[in-house]
Amino acid sequence: MAYSTLLCEKTDGVATITFNRPDKSNAFDDALIAETIDALKDIERDADVRAIILTGAGKNFCAGQDLSPLLKFYQSGQPIPFGEHVRKSYNVIVAKIRTIEKPFIAAINGAAAGAGFGIACACDLRHASEHAKLRMAFVGIALAPDSAASFLLPRLIGLGRALEMAITNEPVDAAKALQIGLVNRVFSADELMPKTHEFARQLSRAPTRAIGLTKRAFNRALDCDLETALDYEATMQEIAGRTRDHREGVQAFTEKRAPKFSGQ
Amino acid sequence: MAYENIIVTIEDAVGLIQLNRPKVMNALNAQVMTELGQAFDEFETNDAVRCVVIHGNERAFSAGADIDAMKTATPVEMLKGNWVAQWDRPRKFAKPVIAAVSGYALGGGCELAMACDIIIASESAQFGQPEINIGVIPGAGGTQRLTRAIGKSRAMELTLTGKFMKADEALQRGLVARVVPVEMYLEAAKTLAREIASKAPVAAQFAKECVNKVFELPLGEGLDYERRHFYFLFSTEDQREGMAAFLAKRKAEWKGK
Q1: Number of domains in chain B
Q2: From the CB of residue A231, how many other CB atoms can be counted at a distance below 10 Å?
Q3: Catalytic residue selected from B15, B107, B108, B142
Q4: Exactly one of B131, B149, B189, B207 is catalytic; which is it?
Q5: Are residues B158 and B76 in the same domain?
Q6: In total, how many domains does chain A have?
Q7: Cys staple from B61: which of A81, B101, B111, B248, with CB 3.0 to 4.6 Å?
Q8: Is residue B24 part of a domain?
Q9: Could you tell me the pLDDT band of residue A7, with boundaries at 50, 70 and 90?
Q10: Which residues of A touch B181 (CB under 8 A)?
Q11: pLDDT in tens, A159-180
């Protein structure tokens, strides 16, 4: 599939998805939503892809929902079918990012707002440029959170800070985001992409199955009790113990050499 | 017996039946169901088999009855062939039957899984009765067994919309006994089957019959039925052995007598 609103480039086991509507701050219109879902499905199937970067073209990461496709509803006074829209778009995207068993890095190059912010939170790691600005945005236009912001943000930064971001709609800059654990690393604008690519290349040589099982275990532990989490960990460990990479890891350790992980 | 649509093996004391039409997501037609019946017949008289596991593959347990084979059928043809009656075979089979379900268990596939005694599901399992979408209704027990398993309101919703229910919900509503990661679901089912196979065989058969009677009998009759079977077990060697072994704090050696 040829994309018109995003770029998907695969090199060295790393897929880089770039939201590519820079004149619209990379806001999600129907095409960008459809193409993002398609690109994620493609990445899920492609065994050669072992790490994924999500970023935005131009100065911004992603401004969230583009309201212009919805204008017809506002003009006609019809109810806006947000429920259906969100279920078919951001719910699918976030579920894919959380369940595809490969590491996702959001390279937040500028503003990340609304669903753009939610999707950044859904990634496994967040790298921010010094110019990054993260904002919930929903309440600014009198909307409630979507794209799992209500689920993931309190888990990332705590309920108090999450509610503060959600209710006040104040933006969080890169330095503050790093301090409260909202992003993992901050880089200068020039360094963000090269450093993130380098990092992703390392991840593409990591034991991908083990990372996938780790994601699964963390997802499970987000909403279960200790006993269930312990039992699930035992099962994940059983599965991990059977992978080729585990054998390679142990063998490399005993031979005092660097492991060569295949991802299997 | 040579089978074309299923793979039948025995591991330890567990009889394994794999639905093996992967290209059509294990769609069930008269041939598959006949072979399934034959496999059950074989296992029924084979004392080496004490529990059975039916499974498909990771992507599909079975996506349903073979629609292509039914599209021009007349009622009388359906009645004469009566292959739909084969869905009741796991219930009538004397030994416990486990369905190990991954991926789709839809229509006839869902009905086959529900006809088994226990369902172990993988995290990717999905259950549904989408017959309404092709202008019919479930015909192999779907309306009856799904309703008994998960209650009327949700069963109605699923049967009237044809929508699917995911593994977690199936667990929460009691349709399945356990949900296991896809890598482990078959192994979990086999482990459970081995455990069941290690129990006193006549008692296992009676336990299955008594639990299934819940859906047939009023409580008073069900309690009588259970009690009579309980008393009857005192005529078996395994009852004497089981209780003696318990008191002597040793492991019982079952004879199946």
Answers
A1: 2
A2: 12
A3: B108
A4: B131
A5: yes
A6: 2
A7: B101
A8: yes
A9: very high
A10: 216, 235-236, 239
A11: 999 999 999 999 999 999 999 9
